[in-house]
Amino acid sequence: MTSLFTTDPAVLVLEDGTRHVGRAYGARGTTLGEVVFATGMTGYQETLTDPSYAGQIVLQTAPHIGNTGMNQEDPESRRIWVSGYIVRDPSRVVSNWRAEESLDEALERDGIVGISGIDTRAVTRHIRSAGSMRGGIFSGDSASIEPDEQLRIVRDAPQMAGLNLSAEVSVPVAQVTPAEGERIGNLAVLDLGVKQATVDNLAARGFEVHVLPQSVTIDELRAIDPVAVFYSNGPGDPAASDAHVELLRGVLDERLPFFGICFGNQLLGRALGLGTYKLPFGHRGINQPVLDKSTGRVEITAHNHGFAVDAPVEGEFESPAGYGRIEVSHVGLNDRVVEGLRALDLPAFSVQYHPEAAAGPHDANYLFDRFRDMVLASLAGRENRDQVEQGDTATTGEND
């Protein structure tokens, strides 16, 4: 736990030339990414290990970070995914009985370059006004690079818009989690950056969860004989994921029940023929109010998205891609952003946030039950159709 007791310099450089000088935190070196802020007061371990944050330098708006340390029970994936980390006041001690290492030790282990000791409120207000932008953290020896050269390095980094990051975060081979309780059937989960809490919630509903690589084909998906398909959260621009959109259209064409969250919501929108766009500074945190239009209930939800679906928030409309009637099912109350879609003529729906809420409130956990009920209804309908067809065949045979 050396980083808190050294005076290695560090500087945060934004692409508009803004500079903030602080102290090195975590690994030393240079890192680049889109600078975004997350408003959660707690749950930093889940945030850091959420694959949706790949390619992003995450700023914590909560001023005091690290007091609960890190453990092996709470990670949402196999590693820390953020490109960089910004905090104001890192805890000098770890004071939680579950902690197995300090936060800065975990950052160093995974090679995550961070910065501490800067005015994170000022950076947050700047991003809220100017929008999310590329940035770089230069710490240790890298902090002494000439300011003009640091700015050039930042401006040469790729933009998040147009970036496909799915291959970086997805599993290389399929992974299976057995169903808990009464088994419903195989669930195909396209791993675009799935979190472990999502897998656990799906398995708890009776699904045998097959987490599949993002490169899977429709034939490979069919081979597991799924009762339904799920698209996970993930990083990147949905406009750069044409292959995933085509795969989803194959799923919709076969009328397989579908549920998507976060990135999966954006890809359902695209599959239905809708557009997507980049938000000025996105939604990231565990305190975002969303209206469920079907119940009139306001839920406090966990978000992490910088893109959104472009669709009318009131009334039904026809899918531009020919999939029947669609409605926006959930709306963000801060800015009226589309937070959910529901197909009215197909067994498919999605939300733009995290119903597994790790970390976060559990107001939206019912969506996993809604998905299970939709799948069970689809299976019952399929069984009834099979019985009718068998009856028709038997009657035809008798008449012959």
UniProtKB/TrEMBL annotation:
Entry annotated with the keyword Methyltransferase: no
InterPro entries in the cross-refs: Anth_synth/Amidotransfase, CarbamoylP_synth_ssu, CarbamoylP_synth_ssu_N, CarbP_synth_ssu_N_sf, Class_I_gatase-like, CPSase_GATase1, GATASE
Ranges of residues in domain Carbamoyl-phosphate synthase small subunit N-terminal: 8-138
Keyword Glycoprotein found: no
Documented EC number(s): 6.3.5.5
Family as reported in the entry's similarity comment: Belongs to the CarA family.
Protein name (Swiss-Prot/TrEMBL): Carbamoyl phosphate synthase small chain
Organism: Microbacterium immunditiarum
Gene: carA
